Amino acid sequence: MSFSSDVKKELTTLDPGKKCCQLAQIAGMMRFAGSITLSGGGMGIKVSTTDPAVARLFINLMRTYFGAKASLFVEESARLARGRSYSLQITPDMNADAILREVGILAVREGSNYLTDGLPKDIIKKRCCKKAMLRGVFLASGSVTDPARSYHLELKCDSPEMADDLMKLLGSFGLRPKLTERRGKQVVYIKESEQISDFLNIIGASQMYFRFQDVKITRELVNTANRINNCESANMEKTASAALRQRLDVALIAAERGLDSLPEKLRQAAVLRRDNPELSLAELAELADPPISKSGLNHRFEKLSAMAEAIRAAQ
After folding, report:
1. Which CATH code fits 11-197?
2. How far apart are CA 29 and CA 119, in angstroms?
3. Most CB within 10 Å of its CB: which of 8, 189, 235, 256?
4. What is the DSSP letter of 174?
5. What is the pLDDT of residues 146-163, one digit of tens each?
6. What's this model's pTM, rounded to 2 decimal places?
7. Per-domain residue ranges for the chain?
8. Are 151 and 198 contacting, i.e. CB atoms less than 8 angstroms apart?
9. pLDDT tens digits, residue range 241-280?
10. Nearest Cα to Cα of residue 117 among 64, 80, 164
11. CA-to-CA separations, 234 to 276, 279, 284, in angstroms, rounded
12. Which residues contact 73 (CB under 8 A, 6 or more apart)?
C-alpha cells in the first residue's frame, strides 16, 4: 500500500462527526471527484474513485445524511495501475438535483438552475466544517508522497476558481500552498515537510501524522549524521539516537496533552529539545534558564520519556 492509500484508509475509519461536517465532507468529495449526468431530462450525480474504501465511505455518507442509496459500478481498466475504478451514481429519481443544491454545486437564479464555481462558502463557515471539507477533498483528489522518499502533497482541481478557493481554505489554517497546472488541471501542492504534517493533522489523520513525523525526524537526523566527521561518527550516532527519542517523546506529548500542561521545568526541557534538535544534551543544558547540569537535564528527559510511554500504552 502507498502512503496516500494509508492516509485515505485512516480517514475512512473516522467518525463522520456532526451533520454540518458530514455535509461539508460530502460536498468536498462530490466537488472534486463528481460529475453531473443527464438522464430522461433529469440530473444525476456520478462520483468516481479508484479506492474501494473511499467508495464505501461515500455510499455510507449518502445514506446517513441524505437517505439516498448510491448505485455502485465497478469498471475494469488496463490503463489504471490497479486495473479497477469505482463509479457511484445517484439517479434523478433519488432527488439528485436537491442533493446538488444542498452541497452547493447547483443553485437557482431567476427560476433556472445553474452550476456554481468554487467551494460552497455557506457550508464551511465553521472551523470543524472546513476540516471536514479538506478531508473530503483529499479523499477525492489528493495524494501525498511517502516521506521516506520526498515531501510532496497535492490536490487536483478542475477549475481555477476551485483552486483559488482551495488555496484560501488552506491558508485559513496557516498553510502556504502553491499552484501549478498539469494536463489541463489546476494542482494545489505543498512541499514543506512541516506544512504537510500540519495538513495531515488538520484532516484528522493522526496516526499517519505521527508516522510522517517519525520518518521526517529520522531523515533529518540521518542527514545531520552524514555531515559529521568520521572520527566523531560513533559519538554523534549515540547523541542523534537520544535526540531522536527525545523529539519523538516531545512531539507525542505536545500532540496529546500540549506542552503547556507540563510542569515548568519539564516544559522548558521539552521546548529546548523541540527548538534545538541538533544539539547534544550538554549543549542544551547550557541554554537552560537558569543553567542546569547535564545529568539534571537528562533526569527531566527521563520523566518526559515515562510520560510518553504511558500515552503510547493507552493508545
Report:
1. 3.10.28.10
2. 11
3. 8
4. T
5. 999 999 999 999 999 999
6. 0.70
7. 11-197, 228-314
8. no
9. 788 888 888 888 988 889 999 999 999 999 998 998 888 8
10. 164
11. 20, 16, 20
12. 86, 87, 88, 89
